[in-house]
Amino acid sequence: MKPKYLWHGSQIKKNKLISKQAFSLKNKEERQIGIYVTNIKERSIVMAILHQKGVRGSRLNFPKGKVIGTIFNGWPKQKYFYLYKLSSKTFKQIDNWQWVSKESIKPLKVERLKTSDYIHMIRKATPREKKIWKEQLKKFRKKQKCQ
Questions:
Q1: Most buried among 8, 28, 80, 139, using CB within 10 Å?
Q2: Residue 20: per-residue pLDDT
Q3: Domain ranges for the chain
Q4: pLDDT given for residue 86 in this prediction
């Protein structure tokens, strides 16, 4: 069942969210043109932090029901980010926690949040995780050149 409201996190404040090309190393569903949202507020918060200026490679993890962002390269440099509450009307579910809409949408509510209040939800990648990420990125780029 689709929830009434969905959440989207962003490093910039906007009056209207507009569809754009998404990027994922692994999942084709996460490479659609659209606005990506979730029904879980904490996931949107972590995604907003992972997409801040200064972060150049990241992943969302769900250990034991928690939400943790892993950063492979860089670190968030913004003092604030924004959390959008949206109507779920135009969104279609693409996996067990994400929805996407190809239509532009006006937020019902926008909250400005301090990065420092949520920094405990992210961590730096271990050297082993960085190595695996770099290998995946290299394979992805090579595959993209061949297409």
A1: 8
A2: 61
A3: 5-146
A4: 96
Q: Under 8 Å CB-to-CB from 99, ≥6 apart: which residues?
A: 2, 6, 36, 37, 38, 39, 88, 91, 92, 93
Question: Phi/psi zone of residue 47: left (φ > 0), alpha (ψ -120 to 50 degrees), beta?
Answer: alpha
Q: How much is the pLDDT for 21? A: 45
Render the chain in DSSP notation, one character per residue: ---SEEEEEESS--SSB--EE---SS-GGGGSEEEEEES-HHHHHHHHHHTSTTB-SEEEE-GGG--EEEESSB----SEEEEEEEESTT-EE-SSSEEEESS-B--SEEEEEEGGGTGGGEEEPPHHHHHHHHHHHHHHHHHHHH-
What are the tokens at 110?
Answer: 């926008």
Confidence (pLDDT) at 90 = 93
Where the chain has pLDDT below 70, the residues are 19-32, 143-147
Tell me the C-alpha distance between 25 and 132, whole Å.
12
